[in-house]
């Protein structure tokens, strides 16, 4: 069955979001993944989506500041795993049969990559502009939120222009048209757009509306190739599962590095409340514009490898650093790693040192059971490596079939490929030992993963 990733960008949409999600869940004809991309909401949006979090196929991305619908949609597209992409604005809804009819259309027209439906506009509250708005876009208009798109189209033409907060869909559609793409249509009203009195469509000045439309059209025509990719120097990815309050130390150690970066925390279905703890800590940093971009992602429990891979999809960084949620960085760790990349421009992976410590909250009778290395040491752990993102294009991502030891398996691929590793003597990682370490709780599972890695490696060699 075909898989469709449905992106729902949301900003202060708590009163309407359930209607939107339920209208998508009721669709037939495809396997559905729903990605709610919360663009810095300050209302009850999280509470509205909370009852869906934890279901398989539901992903919730929450950005710490409002960046606009283009950023929200792009986060959703990058996180998607479907062959097709669809959109539904958080205050709108799909009508029955929408998805199935669009899927059937693209199956019957393999030469086309995008298909729209007609829409109807509904005014939820009376306003002077309601009658005009009701008559807008019933048929004949290309409305991005009503589209079903082959994902390959975004790979070819690029994503939404993140410098645009309005008419971004017009620019993208013009770009597609200029590239020779044909637009298909299911000529039936299958998308219901709810117009709110506070919406941009109601309050926009007619002259400004026309100017924005013309500007978007011209920008899309001029840009007949992918827009410049939004990229940052460094992304720190923190996969998390029942990390308790340890996540606070991890986040603070990243922020204390004093360099611009983005933080992406991927919560792998935690049940201990650490997602709320992480969000409180992330959002407590007021100078987001200076410090960078911060995102919390929540999904059903799928394992460490899946968490790392989802973070990879979202990351915009040229360099990637993985930090386990119960560990923390030493002072100047990231700066030392980045300096090594400049000293050796050909380096694609920088390896550093780590040091074990026993978590201070442990009672003495438990602490003495833990055996740790008393000295700093070098080991190819995720938290000791700065990795160029091109290595993942070359070697592939983490193996999601492994319950653990996914980093060890990836490092073996690195060694087999003969890729040189640049080693520095800087102690960058403080590695926490406590009674609920994954390796301690799931020793049998970890050994099984190691055996699977060894068998697969031997099989490939023969």
Jot down its keywords:
alpha/beta, 462 residues, Spore Coat Polysaccharide Biosynthesis Protein SpsA, Chain A, 17 strands, 19 helices, 37% helix
User: What's the pLDDT, averaged over the residues?
Assistant: 85
Biggest β-sheet description: 17 strands, mixed
CATH class of the largest domain: Alpha Beta
Roughly how many Å apart are the termini?
Answer: 35 Å
Question: What is the CATH superfamily of the largest domain?
Answer: Spore Coat Polysaccharide Biosynthesis Protein SpsA, Chain A
What is the helical fraction, as a range of percent?
25-40%
Number of strands: 17
The CATH level-2 architecture of the largest domain is identified as Alpha-Beta Complex
CATH topology of the largest domain: Spore Coat Polysaccharide Biosynthesis Protein SpsA, Chain A
- What proportion of the residues form beta strands (DSSP E)? 15-25%
Taking all Cα atoms into account, the compactness measure Rg is 24 Å
Give a quick summary of the entry.
This protein is an alpha/beta fold.
Question: How does the SSE layout of this entry go?
Answer:
Blueprint: E1 3-10, H1 17-25, E2 31-38, H2 45-50, E3 58-63, H3 69-79, E4 84-87, E5 93-94, H4 98-108, E6 114-123, H5 130-134, E7 147-150, H6 151-157, H7 168-178, E8 184-195, H8 200-203, H9 206-222, E9 232-240, H10 246-255, E10 261-268, H11 274-283, H12 288-291, E11 292-299, H13 304-314, E12 317-322, E13 328-329, H14 333-343, E14 349-358, H15 364-367, E15 377-378, E16 385-388, H16 390-395, H17 406-416, E17 422-433, H18 438-441, H19 443-461
Parallel strand pairs: 1-2, 1-4, 2-3, 6-8, 9-10, 9-12, 10-11, 14-17
Antiparallel strand pairs: 3-11, 4-7, 5-8, 6-7, 12-16, 13-17, 14-15, 14-16
Helix pairs in contact: 3-13, 7-9, 10-11
